[in-house]
Write a structure and sequence with these properties.
Rossmann fold; alpha/beta; binds flavin mononucleotide
Length: about 220
């Protein structure tokens, strides 16, 4: 089994999202001894931003691309291949200004590729290729954006953007562990929020481990 594990917090120390994603991977490793982890910290290995040349190359049919176009797309090609060969995807990030850190947006921009991660059908509809990957998003937020609880829930531009991008690529059952509010000055409440997150991650890890062992009866 192979997991792509992406962190997007730029914090070198003290990142809650990095702490939680590392915990989740460690839980998976307890039950999947053969687990291969493909790790990216987008704040360090920041994917390139899209350019004019990239867009031209992307929309040129693969067989007609020049060497220069192939070189322009090589990072994105490789990233898409790594994504598609993964069985599980774990993406962890803080909310930044109501949305995602820009390095994670750059990752998405390199992943949404016609003919690689989605295809355009004859009738103009699209089909995503991420059909078998289990997908977990761990998001950390300073404030509280929970629907029905927080008056700010309609300002959450992070969850809808992640859902849309990855469902366009075929991920129709993403799991979200949104950890909030974390920048709470009451340490007991913060502790409780984190305790709930760990419990959720434990349950998801157990589920993924159980599913990885399930073999269809003959
Ligand atoms: C530049 C910046 C922008 C932020 N924007 C938001 C925001 O829009 N909403 C929010 O609830 N928290 C915001 N926060 C707080 C972080 O989301 C929160 O502290 C989170 O737990 C950090 O996760 P990390 O420790 O993994 O980096 C922001 C923090 C920073 C540094």
């Amino acid at each position: 089994m192979r997991v792509m594990h992406v962190d997007a917090s730029p914090k070198r120390v003290g990142s809650t999202s990095k702490l939680l994603s590392a915990y989740f991977i460690a839980q998976l490793q307890k039950g999947m001894t053969d687990l291969e982890v493909d790790y990216i910290d987008t704040s360090i290995q920041t994917p390139p931003h899209l350019t004019h040349d990239f867009i031209e190359a992307m929309y040129t049919p693969a067989t007609l691309r020049s060497r220069a176009m192939q070189a322009t797309l090589s990072y994105s090609d490789n990233l898409c291949a790594r994504l598609l060969m993964s069985d599980m995807l774990v993406f962890a990030m803080p909310m930044y200004n109501f949305s995602m850190p820009s390095s994670f947006k750059a990752l998405i921009d390199n992943l949404v590729r016609p003919d690689l991660t989605f295809c355009i059908n004859k009738d103009g509809s699209t089909s995503g290729k991420l059909t078998h990957q289990r997908m977990l998003f761990i998001t950390t937020r300073g404030a509280d954006f929970r629907v029905g609880i927080s008056p700010w829930s309609n300002m959450d531009a992070l969850t809808p953007a992640l859902k849309s991008s990855f469902s366009f690529m075929g991920g129709d059952a993403p799991i979200f562990v949104d950890v909030q509010p974390l920048d709470n000055h009451n340490p007991i409440e913060r502790h409780e929020v984190l305790a709930q997150a760990y419990l959720k991650l434990d349950a998801i890890a157990l589920q993924w481990i159980a599913n990885s062992r399930y073999v269809l009866p003959a």
